[in-house]
Amino acid sequence: MLRRLRRRPLRPALPQARRPGPRGVNAPAALVSIPFGAVIALQVGSLTQQLGAQSFTGGASVLAVIQQASPLIVALLIAGAGGSAICADLGSRKIREELDAMEVMGVSPIQRLVVPRVLATMLVAFLLNGMISVVGTLGGYFFNVIMQDGTPGAYLASFSALAQLPDLYISEFKALVFGFIAGVVAAHRGLNPRGGPKGVGDAVNQSVVITFLLLFFVNMIITAIYLQVVPAKGG
Predict the structure, then answer these.
(1) 3-40, pLDDT tens digit by residue?
(2) What is the pTM of this model?
(3) What is d(CA 46, CA 77) in angstroms, rounded to the nearest whole number?
(4) Start-to-end Cα distance in the chain
(5) Whole-number Å distance between alpha carbons of 39 and 45
């Protein structure tokens, strides 16, 4: 799989990224990111008020959105929408024996069908993560300033004091990894359905569940490594 990913250009993935599955998560992603950013800002703001550190509300909430919330929102939406669509499409092709026919003609189903879809999920996850980070940060800013009587200057000052460029890098890296996992798991389950049409539905459910479990586990590992490797700003 990795060898084919290196050899295959990005061009075949672009039509897959425009398909209804991956493309249809744009609006839900933006809508979900607003309450996520608001909840994080309100919770962090309440905690910092109790500790007498209201000036750090902006930086703490933005870091939480960018490092953790945004990649996870992307991953869950990609796995639930794009991953399920990929799994259902490949599974239906499998039970109709289209993949066997491709192999008879000398066409690799992995290279022709799987690789472009995996690249598409990675591309969409990467782009969505940037959008969700911006929308979630703006949502947190609005709720902190409007509902918790925070000041715009303090919010932005704490963000510039605590945040650093590697925080954005790790967020986008997580999005790429999560998109890769969602695409590979969905493709694997779609290529191996059991029991005819009913097996395709079971494979879709299994792909979503397996992807969710892997995403949270991988997120924990990446976060732990990042916190050990990259020192905190000012630390």
Answers:
(1) 544 454 455 555 555 554 445 566 677 777 777 777 77
(2) 0.81
(3) 29
(4) 40
(5) 10
